[in-house]
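B., you asked whether I could sanity-check this one before it goes into the benchmark set. Here's the sequence:
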Amino acid sequence: MTERIAMFNHKGGVSKTTTTFHLGWMLASKGHRVIVVDADPQCNLSGLILGFKGENEFEHFYEVEGTRNIRAGLAPAFESQPRSIEPVDCVEVPGREGLFLLPGHIRLSEYEVTLGIAQELAGSIQTLQNLPGSFSYLLDVTAQKYKADYVLVDMNPSLSSINQNLLMTSDFFIVPSSPDYFSVMAIESLSTVLPRWHAWSERAKSNPILRGAAYPYPDRTPKFLGTVIQKYRPRKGAPTEGFQSWIDSINERVARQLAPTLNPLKMLLPPMVYARVAGLLPGYCLAQIADFNTLIAKSQEHKTPVFALTDAQLGHVGVVLGIDLGKREEFKDVFSNLASQVEILTTNEIGA
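And here's what the prediction gave me:
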């Protein structure tokens, strides 16, 4: 059974792409088959894995590879093509067996308006009834092709109709955050937005037209796994006082506002499931990850997570290399623990 996890926060600059890439790699290193999906028209995840830096390289990829991207995979539904949606031929991520990329497309947002109309009309126009279920159908058949255990969806920072669809048709979601005022406000905003999205999804699930479409709208309710708070400066292995204050504020806002909002919507896991992850409650914080600093540039250069960089790829010697090696092991421990927590929380049916 494939578990789909959306990485979502409508605030930008919270390292959604970095988290998706590192978590996907770590889950694959633990023996899982993982697809990372680039659903952001900025295509940062695709650029990172494929080593692209500009639009020209993407356009060449689209010309050469044809249907090997998310937009082309959805085209039969959105462009009324006389063929069915088929699995996307994913890219095998170099250096990590079991990890695959479903590439993004810089023009994916062109489907935004049509999907929004379809979702507002709830299938009342026959030509639009296949659209609300098409994203989920594409990810499902692609996951089946690759026998994926996990599908991680990297989403753009917005409250778009595409994000609404991707989140509400996932099994779980993680909210990456950064320790600042805007992330605290984003948690408060999600407490208002997610109930509206949930209400729309419930109507869609009960709509006989959407249930009977060629790409049926799925009967799913996403469960909140927790937050990942990163991009802070550490001192002696812990966040500085200023950053810790914002981390505490995020945890408090999640515990006192977001979680109580999600609970009656059945968008939380049972308390006994969260209890399996030591220290997760009450703030639902899965991980605190310090700033990658210069190591992120090395990671991007070599298309490899920080924790998987070789000594040669780090490119330093002596004392500096020693510092880098310490950081590499620190990040390896953090993401290994994060991946283990995801494994625990997504197997909630056992004993829940």
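One thing to flag: The chain has one domain: 3-294. Otherwise nothing jumped out at me.
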